[in-house]
Amino acid sequence: MMQNPVARLRLTTAPFSLVLLLVLGWAGCEGQPDKPRPPAAPGADVAAAEPTVPLSPARTLPEVAAHVAAQVEQVVKAEPAALAKAILATGPDAKVVKSMYGEPKLRFFGIDGQPNADGAQVLKLLGELDRHGIDKAGYRLDALDAALAGVRKAFEQERAAVLALQSRPRVAVVAQAAAVWLRGGEGGELVLVRAGGDQLVEAGLRKLDEGLPKVLEAAALARQAIWQADLEISRAAVRYLVDFELAKPAHPLNYTPPSEVRRMSETFGDKLVARLGNSRGKVAEVMRSAWPTHPQYAALLDAGDLYAKYVAAGGWQPLPKLAAKKVAKGDTGPFVDALRERLAAEGYDPGDGQGFDEGLNEAVVKFQEGHQLDADGVVSKTTISELDVPAERRLELIRLSLERYRESEGRNPENFHIFVNIAFQKLWVYEDGKVVREHRVIVGNNENSEDQQTLMKGKINRTKMFSKPITRVILAPRWYPTQRVIELEIQKSLAKQPDYLEKHGYVSEMGADGVETYYQKAGPDNLLGDVKFQGPNKYNIYLHDTPFRALFGKARRAFSHGCIRVQSPIDLAEDLLQRDRGMTPGQIRAAIDEKEEKIVNLKTPIPVHIDYASAGVDEEGHVVFGNDVYGYDQAFFDGLLPVEEAKEYKAASVRGL
User: pTM to 2 decimals?
Assistant: First the structure.
């Protein structure tokens, strides 16, 4: 059940105003009114005269059964219209919720007011929204809690009405059977007989006459309350699929604002109907199927559980001010003691020693490796800055990364694929959910720049987030500079050095259309290096080698103009081409050594997913954090999404370049 339910009952007449159906009067047209008493004789004692007035006979059991049956019939007859009205009141959710109720039949509860197996699992999933980092604002959880509390309250009232008849236990049992009948259970005179109704004498039948109206009224309230809770769970299930499969509240560029999220159940109604319309008994299964299958998602859920425990335990305090510029192995003092305590609080084992010993050094190095820092064991301002990030923010980053995986085009990746995480500046090759290769990469820089061809300026060098396959591998590739590079770099260099093209391996060709083009031949200076991995995409971003390989030694590597430079790319090429074309390492290296561009088209394109998630779990199971290189995380926390990376400018504004 959901936690912290609203204590007070908040029932309205919607969706099923059953109580009104019961206000028929127990002694109405089907009952027998009391006979009028004759006037007392003048001076007669009234009390003495009362025994002479005969009591109305109690209803017989068949009459009781007929009366209950009539009320049940009216309830059942009214229910479709009441359900239709209640569904219409769900607003944007109406189309999907309607598809879930082809007939007035509960989905998540039994008539006993208890969730069925599917309902219990759905409630469990809704109780774990925080674990997934889901904003609960759109789930009407207050209304759901109130509905669940209403079910409990209604059944308490029914029990109280039955207990009021306990002075005659068999009467209470018959009344309870009638209540179950009205709530939708097995009914008929035979049910009342099995409950002992045929054994009731006149006094018992009269007691039943007296107490049954309150029991049935309470049962009607219980039936109404169960339906209210059932519909609230249905609405929450719809929102769950919206949040897990459709909405993008954290995407830096394709951001979905809250107002649009609220309408998504209507906008994507057909898709949601296809998912939930025929899901009776397996809604929880459908909800779980909405989780991303990327291996990092499940790992991050566990990471979030761990950091939630750190938060619950009080987290950790910022380190004291460092007197020197840095501390390292061999140092002692209060700061070192605090450092040891701080690392231990996050699960880094510094050992049982004292001072900055080998155990503490190993813990510092492990921390640095897990936070994209130079892993030298030296604690300076940069490392302290990462150590001082509170446990609460680390948990928020994990949950934000879960959201980013939900929003990713690579959320459900293929069995064999390449995944690039911009925030970690790393590339992984996955096969059957396991990492088979890992490469450092260099991604686009975060500097401001201008493009005279497109008349755009801003953060135009950032690597984009998208998914497209590699369709060919190019060995000893030529590099064709963009028009922007030609105008801003090559032509300017030619003005100063007439032999610039020859020195740097460029070739100039005049096309049939009279347009001069340039390319750089394969060789040690070629900016694409020895290999290029290419596939069609609107950003013209691809993976490639680089002659500037020393940059891979940097802990944080945002240096390119948008393309992704790969460390040890020949190893990657050998792996991919061996799988796809059966090429040997010798054949691949021989082709590169020829220094003539060779294009190898792949028989089976290789999916590549490029994303941005600053928390992850490494192959050893350790929680690691990347770098918010483009400030996307901070923009999310500051409520500044979507991010504007570039904007148009007038050509006149760049005269003189």
Answer: 0.88
